[in-house]
Amino acid sequence: MSESLVGATTIEAAKFVVGQNPQIANVFYRKYVYVPAQLGKDEMIPVSRENFLRGLDPKILIFAEETQANIALDSRVNLLDGAKGHLLMMDLTLSKGLAGLQTTEERLRSCIIPHFGGGFLMETGQSYHFLGNQITNQEGWINFLGRCLVTSEVTKDKGFIEVADTRYIGFSLLRGSNGLRLTTRGTKSFIPRVVAIL
User: Is the pLDDT of residue 51 over 70?
Assistant: First the structure.
């Protein structure tokens, strides 16, 4: 993977991943309003692979009066052969900074990359996101979520380090998909950018 993608936004990294997986027929944008501790009533918007790669701006899907709405790239994809798949996405919890970045990279390299390949680590307002290079089927997606849960570890002094966001995984299972935010509106104003390629 090109080191030139360090500094790329979520949508730029996602275009790289979709571009590397020609079996994808379409992706989905998901319009949502973030409400803590609630699964919202999201609107799914299919976007063809071609339109996504050409740069369909997700902001055009939000009306001016929807001041709290954002658009996420959903993990669900439709494949050319009619099958369903998932992009590999995860919200991570360790605080930004050298120690958090090193631990996050180490745990992803140990628990995720041997099974699902590499991807992009992006910094968010508080922590990090992961976007994998490959796509998987439903069974693989469940396996991915399970392996993300075991990135957390118990330390020698019986402390607990949560790496993958367990609440994010819980809501993802309830929804049937993950998502990574693409727009910056309302309380979500930080633009995530790639800080490492794994």
Answer: yes
Of 105, 102, 142, 99, which is closest to residue 121 (Cα–Cα)?
105
Name residue 121's beta-bridge partners: 130, 196
Q: Looking at this protein, which amino acid is placed at residue 39?
A: L
Can you give the pLDDT at residue 189? 64
Contact 86, 77 (CB under 8 A): yes
Domain layout of the chain by residue ranges: 3-197
Residue 65: pLDDT band (50, 70, 90) is low
Could you give the count of Cα atoms lying within 13 Å of 67 in the half-sphere of its Cβ?
Answer: 2
Tell me: the pLDDT tens digits for 27-42? 999 988 776 777 777 8
Burial classification of residue 140, based on how many CB atoms lie within 10 Å of its CB (0-12 exposed, 13-18 middle, 19 or more buried)? middle
What is the CB neighbour count within 10 angstroms for residue 124? 18
Q: What angle do CA 11, 97, 187 make, to 5 degrees?
A: 50
Measured between alpha carbons, how far is residue 135 from residues 18, 21, 53 in Å?
Answer: 9, 8, 16
Cβ atoms 98, 42 nearer than 8 A: no
Residue-wise pLDDT tens digits, 112-150? 999 999 999 999 988 999 999 999 999 999 999 999 999
